[in-house]
């Protein structure tokens, strides 16, 4: 293994292109669920955008957990799933806080559209949750 790859890898498996592709696909699926539900609640039902964002984020959490655990990180064992789900929930709740704060900043302060704001907020949150998720599901690089 080259010294550059070792230096960048740090045990996180950043050079495992398949896990990154699966993460993006899983996250994309979860993001679509999030955006569709947010849009439906806000535009059709008339729920306030912050509450819509929180509800959509919670539903997307379940989609994300299932896809990330079983498909992205190939952790098919149900042993310790309660602990994993609790830690993933804690991570997601922190992410929800960051997401909600970013939504507020983008919509109220920067006057961006709600859906565009959610795309920016979601992408920002996804960048740092990748590393947390890798540890939760104990994914090993090949």
Structural write-up:
With 142 residues, the protein is mainly alpha-helical. The chain is 79% helix and 0% strand. The chain has helices at residues 3-9, 17-45, 49-72, 81-109, 114-136. α2 (17-45) packs antiparallel against α3 (49-72). The protein is elongated. It starts with a helix and ends in a 6-residue tail after the last helix.
Write a brief structural summary.
This protein is mostly helical and 142 residues long. The protein is 79% helix and 0% strand.
The fraction of residues in strands falls at: under 5%
Structural class: mainly alpha
Average residue-wise pLDDT? 86
**Assembly of the depicted chains:** single chain
Which outline best applies?
A: elongated
Span between N and C termini?
Answer: 12 Å
Task: Give short descriptive properties of this protein.
5 helices, mainly alpha, disordered N terminus, 142 residues
Question: Which helices and strands, and how do they pair?
Answer:
Blueprint: H1 3-9, H2 17-45, H3 49-72, H4 81-109, H5 114-136
């Amino acid at each position: 293994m080259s010294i550059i790859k070792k230096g960048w890898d740090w045990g996180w498996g950043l050079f495992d292109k398949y896990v990154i592709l699966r993460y993006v696909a899983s996250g994309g699926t979860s993001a679509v669920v999030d955006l569709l539900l947010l849009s439906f609640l806000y535009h059709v039902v008339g729920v306030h955008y912050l509450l819509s964002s929180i509800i959509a984020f919670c539903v997307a959490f379940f989609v994300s957990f299932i896809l990330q655990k079983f498909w992205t990180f190939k952790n098919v064992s149900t042993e310790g799933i309660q602990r994993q789900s609790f830690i993933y929930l804690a991570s997601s709740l922190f992410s929800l806080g960051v997401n909600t704060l970013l939504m507020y900043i983008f919509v109220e302060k920067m006057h961006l559209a709600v859906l565009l704001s959610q795309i920016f907020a979601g992408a920002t949150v996804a960048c740092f949750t990748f590393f947390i998720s890798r540890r939760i599901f104990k994914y090993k690089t090949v």
